[in-house]
Amino acid sequence: MSNLIKNFARPDKAEEVVTFGSLDASTQELLKAAFAVRQHAYVPYSGFKVGAAFRAIPSNQIFTGCNVENAAFTPCSCAERTALTKAVSEGAREFSVGAVVAYQEDVFTPPCGVCRQFIREFATVDIPIYIGQALDHRLETKEDPFHPDDPILSTSIFNLLPSSFHTYRK
Ligand SMILES: [Zn+2]
């Protein structure tokens, strides 16, 4: 193997669909935080709400963000970038895990290409990312946002963005 690819981003483990109930309490808490912040999404144009949450190292603090749209469209910010920008602006630069929550009936909603690169900036090692389906009707019925048998996509930034551009810094 060429030395020129030995430092490429490669995932630690393969992407898979798991159940919410199989996740540890810390990851469940992160998904719930992403669900909660999604309710603040400012989406007058698309109506498509997204919430994201990242856990910082070493504090274990959760930073959350929602998507924020704009009438001029180009200045829109995704939930993932909102969360990470909040975190970095408060001094966090390392993250152990992330969660993204949105809702499309027939497909999970992983981060867009821009956000994948944004997350990659802070990934010196692979960061697990959990993607959940947000069912808003559970707010009205005051149910838990996730049930134990709900499907969750367990992926990671190196699964989402392999062989990625990282840094030219020494
Ligand atoms: Zn994005």
UniProtKB/TrEMBL annotation:
<keyword id="KW-0479">Metal-binding</keyword>
<keyword id="KW-0862">Zinc</keyword>
<dbReference type="GO" id="GO:0005829">
    <property type="term" value="C:cytosol"/>
</dbReference>
<dbReference type="InterPro" id="IPR050202">
    <property type="entry name" value="Cyt/Deoxycyt_deaminase"/>
</dbReference>
<comment type="function">
    <text>This enzyme scavenges exogenous and endogenous cytidine and 2'-deoxycytidine for UMP synthesis.</text>
</comment>
<dbReference type="GO" id="GO:0055086">
    <property type="term" value="P:nucleobase-containing small molecule metabolic process"/>
</dbReference>
<dbReference type="InterPro" id="IPR016192">
    <property type="entry name" value="APOBEC/CMP_deaminase_Zn-bd"/>
</dbReference>
<dbReference type="InterPro" id="IPR006262">
    <property type="entry name" value="Cyt_deam_tetra"/>
</dbReference>
<dbReference type="GO" id="GO:0008270">
    <property type="term" value="F:zinc ion binding"/>
</dbReference>
<feature type="binding site">
    <location>
        <position position="78"/>
    </location>
    <ligand>
        <name>Zn(2+)</name>
    </ligand>
</feature>
<dbReference type="Pfam" id="PF00383">
    <property type="entry name" value="dCMP_cyt_deam_1"/>
</dbReference>
<dbReference type="InterPro" id="IPR016193">
    <property type="entry name" value="Cytidine_deaminase-like"/>
</dbReference>
<dbReference type="GO" id="GO:0042802">
    <property type="term" value="F:identical protein binding"/>
</dbReference>
<comment type="similarity">
    <text>Belongs to the cytidine and deoxycytidylate deaminase family.</text>
</comment>
<feature type="binding site">
    <location>
        <position position="115"/>
    </location>
    <ligand>
        <name>Zn(2+)</name>
    </ligand>
</feature>
<protein>
    <recommendedName>
        <fullName>Cytidine deaminase</fullName>
        <ecNumber>3.5.4.5</ecNumber>
    </recommendedName>
</protein>
<feature type="binding site">
    <location>
        <position position="112"/>
    </location>
    <ligand>
        <name>Zn(2+)</name>
    </ligand>
</feature>
<feature type="active site" description="Proton donor">
    <location>
        <position position="80"/>
    </location>
</feature>
<dbReference type="GO" id="GO:0072527">
    <property type="term" value="P:pyrimidine-containing compound metabolic process"/>
</dbReference>
<dbReference type="GO" id="GO:0004126">
    <property type="term" value="F:cytidine deaminase activity"/>
</dbReference>
<dbReference type="InterPro" id="IPR002125">
    <property type="entry name" value="CMP_dCMP_dom"/>
</dbReference>
<keyword id="KW-0378">Hydrolase</keyword>
<feature type="domain" description="CMP/dCMP-type deaminase">
    <location>
        <begin position="25"/>
        <end position="142"/>
    </location>
</feature>
